[in-house]
């Protein structure tokens, strides 16, 4: 029996070493260079958008900042790589970016065929369609034979075809790669309708059209679109850091911890709050970061509700309702995994 177990033990040790040697490659590389390289959209107000000074803001940008705060204790230690829909997965696969924090739908195919992993959901959305009021339609089912502007290489393109086929309607896709060009094509009348996630439609209507009231988003939902960050497969440590940065923002809101009161909340007797803020040690060590990782996120970036409010909610040009993105206790589906 000893002769039998010895080779097994050696094999197990070698396997354990090989796994450990590969684990943390992205995490270690990020720490070595001193910043997080984040892949953003090329410009979608409310999600990731650069102003005239080149300063980025939005829900997806805040998540990138949260990861930087968790790893370095400094939310400014990130760099932006704007990526269109055709570039985004290649950029992550090749290592050009460390994490993709741009409005990307998590699907089974993307999780199993690209060498990538969806980390979580930071915005629950659904695909819709927008038309000019002058078209005189109140339902997408009235768009038989219409021309529809859509971006290539997206779930949007596939959902559009599925929905029209399922409703036995014809349409002509007008496929345009760059989002800004789609907006211009639609506004100029090149296509009858414009389809993408409803949050983007609302954002575009309120921020990019000269007369927003001239356009209407039709009521149909073509799909479910859980949007969230993605990382490369093979580095569970980095996957965990990104995943728990998102969960910390959501759970902080649930417990009423925000950027304004986080220092006062350090005195809380609630054991959940103590773990989140690092008063009770251990959670940071498990991730390979400082125990104040979540405190740094909340202090410098804010909780999920704060990020939503300034990016998409009442404090933004979009004025979107929380809807599905409200906390689970408030009728939404935002439900963080517990920091414990």
What descriptive keywords fit this protein?
340 residues, D-Maltodextrin-Binding Protein, domain 2, five-stranded mixed beta sheet, 14 helices, 14 strands, Amino acid ABC transporter substrate-binding protein, Solute-binding_3/MltF_N, transport, Bact_solute-bind_prot3
Report on the structure:
This protein has 340 residues and is α/β, with parallel strands linked by helices. It has a domain at 126-224: 3-Layer(aba) Sandwich (D-Maltodextrin-Binding Protein, domain 2), CATH 3.40.190.10. Helices cover 41% and strands 15% of the residues. The chain contains 14 helices and 14 strands. The protein has helices at 2-22, 25-33, 59-72, 88-94, 108-113, 155-166, 179-187, 198-208, 236-254, 262-265, 271-276, 283-287, 293-300, 304-311; strands at residues 36-40, 49-50, 56-57, 78-82, 99-100, 116-118, 123-125, 127-132, 146-150, 171-175, 193-197, 215-217, 225-227, 230-232. The strands form 5 sheets. It has a 5-stranded mixed beta sheet with strand order 10-9-11-8-12, sandwiched between helices. A 3-stranded parallel beta sheet has the order 4-1-5, sandwiched between helices. Helix 3 (59-72) packs antiparallel against helix 13 (293-300) and helix 9 packs across helix 13. It is globular, with a radius of gyration of 22 Å. The relative contact order is 0.15.
């Amino acid at each position: 029996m000893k002769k039998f177990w010895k080779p097994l033990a050696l094999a197990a040790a070698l396997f354990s070493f090989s796994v450990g040697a590969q684990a943390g490659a992205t995490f270690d590389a990020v720490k070595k260079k001193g910043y997080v390289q984040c892949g953003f959209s090329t410009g979608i107000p409310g999600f990731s958008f650069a102003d005239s000074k080149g300063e980025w803001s939005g829900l997806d940008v805040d998540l990138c900042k949260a990861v930087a705060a968790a790893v370095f204790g400094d939310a400014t230690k990130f760099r932006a790589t704007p990526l269109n829909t055709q570039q985004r997965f290649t950029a992550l696969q090749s290592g050009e970016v460390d994490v993709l924090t741009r409005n990307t739908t998590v699907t089974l195919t993307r999780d199993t065929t690209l060498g990538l992993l969806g980390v979580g959901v930071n915005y629950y959305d659904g695909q819709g369609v927008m038309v000019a009021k002058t078209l005189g339609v109140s339902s997408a089912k009235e768009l038989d034979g219409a021309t529809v502007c859509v971006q290539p290489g997206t779930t949007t393109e596939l959902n559009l075809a599925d929905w029209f086929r399922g409703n036995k309607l014809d349409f002509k896709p007008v496929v345009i790669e760059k989002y800004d060009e789609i907006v211009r094509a639609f506004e100029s009348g090149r296509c009858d309708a414009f389809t993408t996630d409803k949050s983007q439609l609302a954002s575009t209507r309120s921020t990019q059209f000269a007369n927003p009231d001239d356009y209407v988003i039709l009521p149909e939902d073509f799909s479910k679109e859980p949007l969230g960050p993605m990382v490369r497969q093979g580095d569970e440590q980095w996957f965990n850091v990104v995943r728990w940065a998102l969960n910390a923002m959501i759970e902080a809101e649930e417990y009423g911890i925000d950027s304004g009161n986080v220092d006062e909340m350090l005195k809380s007797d609630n054991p959940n709050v103590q773990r989140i803020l690092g008063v009770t040690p251990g959670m940071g060590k498990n991730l390979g970061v400082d125990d104040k990782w979540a405190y740094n996120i909340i202090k410098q970036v804010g909780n999920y509700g704060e990020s939503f409010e300034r990016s998409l909610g009442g404090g933004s040009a979009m004025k979107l309702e929380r809807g599905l993105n409200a906390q689970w206790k408030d009728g939404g589906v935002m439900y963080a995994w517990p920091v414990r």
